[in-house]
Q: What sequence folds into this?
């Protein structure tokens, strides 16, 4: 079974439903994982998505904040969720395809502005969230699984526009990178995007604060697709749709794609 999967922090699925529909029409992934939906599940605008063939939904939502959803044009079953760090946030949901592959969709906390848990509670929550993800993967090693989402960390030097300048900026600090590496190792996860595109600068997020994000190109790779080692070799065709960041009233993230033959 071959299928294409995409992950995208949409920054409000209701506000940007038209952009989701545009992506589905033009790129036609079999599965689209969305983060920061900012919507209760029953308010997600499924009618337009279903018209395009995406009638299957597994999601967790809340009003105005967070929210994760897995849209599919193939049957999927709900595979649960976990409340890491006991935040009470809709930040994780899992779905299982008919071929037995489980897809985990994550929206890791951004962590606020200051990379110091002593003065910034949100940064501590982010580290705790990652630690609990790590502990779960150690206790229950995943198999035949794909993990995607806005992990809010750009781990490699070439995942950010300037490594030295961003070492003290949340999303690229050494302690965050270390926590993410431990989480990845605990589950035996393979970074599919970097397996396919091993060299060169690669970004999936550009700040709204930049008056000309494209020319400035001060990006970070915050959005990821990982797979367990037993199926990582079946992945190919990784790409980031940079042009989507330039659509009208866009999210500040661009979609990340990969194809699996499992």
A:
């Amino acid at each position: 079974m071959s299928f294409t999967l995409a992950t995208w922090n949409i920054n409000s699925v209701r506000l940007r439903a038209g952009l989701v529909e545009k992506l589905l029409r033009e790129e036609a992934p079999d599965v689209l994982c969305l983060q920061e939906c900012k919507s209760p599940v029953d308010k997600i605008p499924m009618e337009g998505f279903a018209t395009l063939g995406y009638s299957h939904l597994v999601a967790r939502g809340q009003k105005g904040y967070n929210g994760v959803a897995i849209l599919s044009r193939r049957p999927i079953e709900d595979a649960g969720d976990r409340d890491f760090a006991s935040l009470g946030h809709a930040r994780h949901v899992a779905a299982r395809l008919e071929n037995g592959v489980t897809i985990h969709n994550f929206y890791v906390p951004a962590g606020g502005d200051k990379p110091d848990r002593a003065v910034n509670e949100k940064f501590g929550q982010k580290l705790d969230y990652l630690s609990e993800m790590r502990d779960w993967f150690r206790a229950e090693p995943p198999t035949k699984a794909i993990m995607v989402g806005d992990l809010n960390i750009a781990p490699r030097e070439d995942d950010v526009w300037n490594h030295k300048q961003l070492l003290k900026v949340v999303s690229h600090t050494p302690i965050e990178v270390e926590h993410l590496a431990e989480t990845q190792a605990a589950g035996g996860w393979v970074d599919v995007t970097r397996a396919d595109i091993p060299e060169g600068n690669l970004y999936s997020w550009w700040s709204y604060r930049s008056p000309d994000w494209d020319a400035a190109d001060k990006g970070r790779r915050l959005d990821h697709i990982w797979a367990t080692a037993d199926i990582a070799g079946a992945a190919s065709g990784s790409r980031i749709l940079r042009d989507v960041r330039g659509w009208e009233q866009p999210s500040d993230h661009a979609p990340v794609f990969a194809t699996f033959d499992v």
